Amino acid sequence: MRIACPFCGERELGEFTYLGDAAPKRPMAFAADGAEQPEAQDLFFDYVYLRDNVAGDMTERWYHGGGCRSWLTVTRNTTTHEIKAVHAAPGAGAQKRTKAGATS
Amino acid sequence: MSRTSQISGDAAPLAFNDNPAADSRQPRSISTGTQSHRLSSGGQIDRKQPLGFTFDGKKMVGFAGDTLASALVANGIKLVGRSFKYHRPRGILTAGAEEPNALVELRGGARREPNTRATTTELYDGLAAESQNRWPSLRHDVMAVNSLFSPIFVAGFYYKTFMWPAKLWEKLYEPAIRRAAGLGKASGAADPDHYEKAWAHCDVLVVGSGPSGLAAALAAGRAGARVILAEEDSRLGGRLLSENGEIDGKPVAEWLAGAQREIAALANIRVMTRTAVFGVYDGGTYGAIERVNDHVPVPPAHQPRQRLWRIVAKHAVVAAGAIERPLVFPGNDRPGVMMASAVRSYINRFAAMPGRQVALFTNNDDGWRTAEAVQRAGGAVAAVIDSRGAAPERYRGLSAKLLGGVVSAVNGGVDCVRSIVVRDAGGRTQQIETDCLAMSGGWNPNVALSSFHRGRPVWRDDIAAFAPGQCPPGMVMVGAASGDFSLAACLREGHAAGEDAAKACGAKGKAGEAPKGDDEVFAIKPLWHVEGGKAFVDFQHDVTASDVKLAQREGFESVEHLKRYTTLGMATDQGKLSNVNGLALMAEATGRSIGDTGTTIYRPPYAPVAIGALAGHHRDENFHAWRLTPSHHWAAERGAVFVDTGLWKRAQWYPIDGEKDWLESVTREVLAVRNGVGFCDVSTLGKVDVRGPDAGIFLDRLYINTFSNLAVGKARYGLMLREDGLVYDDGTTSRLAEDHYFLTTTTAKAGPAMQHLEYCRQVLWPELDVQLTSVTDQWAQFSIAGPNTRDLLKNLCDPSEDLSNEGFPFMGVREVSLRGGMRARLYRISFSGEMAFEIGVPARYGEAMAENLMRAGAEFGVTPYGTEALGVMRIEKGHVAGPELNGTTTADDLGLGKMMSKKKDYIGRAMAGREALTAPDRQVVVGIKPVNKTNRLRSGAHIIPKGAAPGPETDQGYLTSVCYSPMLGHWIALALVERGRERHGEIVRAYDPLRGEDMDVEITSPVFYDPEGGRQRG
């Protein structure tokens, strides 16, 4: 599999590390007023453990540790490995969007 | 020459090279007189280059350009091996990679290589090959007795017979079966050759260099695309090397030479011969194996034996050709029965005539080419048996005896065919004398590469074969591989596919005209099975037509079951010859169509790939890259013993003359530090520069404790959790400036922690203005410890530097000037519990720093110490490390629960509060002392209460870190023990069934040495 890193260009799978589903968002432990969220533990339980087993397009986190150390959000078909989009994570360098690699 | 019921053998045509030894250009020591079946002219061999070789010790001669198989054919050798199960005598069946029979052991000693196909082994001078799976000799193999019992050795025999007692499988049945049935033996020695791995990139990958592949490569190359043309053979040409005919009005050999010249002149075409593309992977990546030096006895110095390629191609044109299918009839495995296309290859390419009276058995037009080729080369055709009953229009003029019907028996000896029996539609039989029976059951497109991504081949009735289904993205199949067998179609399709692929890659040049060839018709009427005796489907695994039918009767109808029950297609040829015949027989038995019966799943590798090639240079000490500390060479010169920690090599201890074991060295190093001063290279710790206005907030969210309130010029120990609430990593972080922290991780977690930090920064909190830089490799860092540390540093630092307790307090950090003016970072932190500093200098000064520390501390007896002494001192101080930060412990388990801030969120905060992670009976860190002080403790020993029977119910924990404490004079340990903090003073058992040890030990505080911490603050 080859992933088109927005910073480095198309690179081979071995340069990347897979994390998993990009959908879960880290919950807030404290409310906006600073009070502790009573249900924080339940929210974090879902965030840490509950994942969908997607057959088809999935947005995933990948880390380009063998390259620019950017975290990427990759849209990949889990049944064909076709990569449809690669975005840099919001905090990864300048934000830019690339098309999927030509041969993905 | 065509009236053919005469006895063969006594009428050798003049065309045979009966006395080549008379050729004066040959070295006198080599005679080519053995080549009884060599044609005197033609072929692509070099008669001026005779090559001596041996087969089972017998000396023979071939020519440059031969394969081992063609040289054996030229020498009249028919018997080359024994089959896997029945030990039946077998001959050379094919002339290519699909060969199931002619497998030999090649080379000797550590280079001995079993199961090498003689048909793809290029002949070299001195080649030594041995036949396999026979004893005492190939002609007289005692295990051939298996064949007599073949009625009971049917499909599934092993499963039925050796069912029980089950325990005998591993000990008795399987070893015995493996000894009796098997192929060649590996050398058992380490492979002395080396292998390498490489990448290549191109616009268009063309797989195969037959007419389709050459046309594709030329079209794409002329258009200007970057082309790789991969060919499994040593020569370009594919079937063109073995066939007669014309392209663009020229004989194929002439056209081929021209095509090769043009390809060589195009700089954008890279030709890779001896390179088999064996797999297709995601993203247009192709696996290929280049047999760089398989055609020489020993690879030249510094050259690999084989090279594994990963080829990344935007488009691939697969022109992998087709493989001729055997016919399934009684006696079809006797040496002397050969594929019709192979007979043509041996005649046209290698100038070796497989028989003196060649008979042909075919169900299709293409087989007839063989009769033509035999006659053209001056050989005799005994008869053509066409199951369809009539000669095709095109071959009506051929003066050969035509018989309608089937071959129903093959008579002969262990190493030859003498005659065949032909049965016509009315059941009448007649005997034909022949010494070589060529057979053609049609052609199977080589669909493998199209099917590796689960593309299912599609049955085509018109060619009676499976054609490629849906190909992986970016790939097209052309020519014979796509089921279009005529030369004209191959050239046309190849050219068009090459042109299209080049255009799709943006090439703008002109592809020129497609070459023109003969548009001959391929007509076939399937003949799947001739009844009347043992007819083989899978030659290597001895699967017969009746085995397939038996499998069906016993319920193994699915193709995947058929394969596993009968072992059809599981031999080293992976069913290249046998699968379709097996499927057709199953279809016949079940009444389904062949298309509905389907094929088994195709999986790479298509061609055998040596494990050595997959490993490349990543073996032994080069299995992975090594990281060396900045003082590595200095330590090595001092005779340090190194330990592998992850990718690092770290000095474990520094033995000196007279020390008898590691314990003596380590004890000396510990005492030297505790009583004087020592130093240790700690550069392997992960180091991260954290900069930016939000650096403090960022660290607050990472660690359980707070860093935003850390004063500039101070260091603090920090603990990180995973989001699930368990401990992740620890280390000291210093604040060098308002917006600049210097964070350290453990050695083991340096890489993962950096990834984690980047995740937090880029994904979780992109709003924070903070930047991370890994500086692990930029700094050489040494821990200097012991009561004389300050004295040593005074010799090292500029006299203006105040190193007193007031001027440089415990946990203080600052940049200092060294004598001579160099700047260094000094951190007053201690892992050993002694008065200690860490000093950091740019990594390139690491070795010089080690030497300077030796000089500065010479008057105090400074002692370099290794990781072992470092470990002893941290256990004596009760500091946790890897064995305690083991992914199952919480901050509180480690005695660090008080560090968990209640005022802020941090990674792992919410989940750390879970019931099970805060339960009062958790196993927590304690110290352990043996009651009998002479006892040695062992890590991994279980803690159980006194008087309790050992078992999972009574298990209360285990020893995590043990050492001999020089300060206490006996062994001590850290352990994780249930409710351990309440149990200091209790006597329990350290039970170690693995080593058969059981002893009383005392639970203590984990801090064995200087519990008040006065020494490190002094």
From TrEMBL, chain A:
Annotated organism of origin: Mesorhizobium retamae
InterPro entries on file: SoxD, SoxD_sf
Pfam families for this protein: SoxD
Protein name: Sarcosine oxidase subunit delta
Domain of life, per lineage: Bacteria
From TrEMBL, chain B:
UniProt similarity note: Belongs to the GcvT family.
Name used for this protein in its record: Sarcosine oxidase subunit alpha
Record carries keyword Lipid metabolism: no
Entry keyword set: Oxidoreductase
GCVT N-terminal domain span: 632-904
Domain SoxA A3 residue range list: 533-616
Record lineage: Bacteria, Pseudomonadati, Pseudomonadota, Alphaproteobacteria, Hyphomicrobiales
Top-level taxon: Bacteria
Polar residues bias: start-end ranges: 27-43
Positions of the UniProt region annotated as Disordered: 1-50
Domain named Aminomethyltransferase C-terminal: residues: 925-1010
Entries under InterPro entries matching the protein: 2Fe-2S-bd_N (IPR042204), BFD-like_2Fe2S-bd_dom_sf (IPR041854), FAD/NAD-bd_sf (IPR036188), GcvT/YgfZ/DmdA (IPR028896), GcvT/YgfZ_C (IPR029043), GcvT_C (IPR013977), GCVT_N (IPR006222), Sarcosine_oxidase_asu (IPR006277)
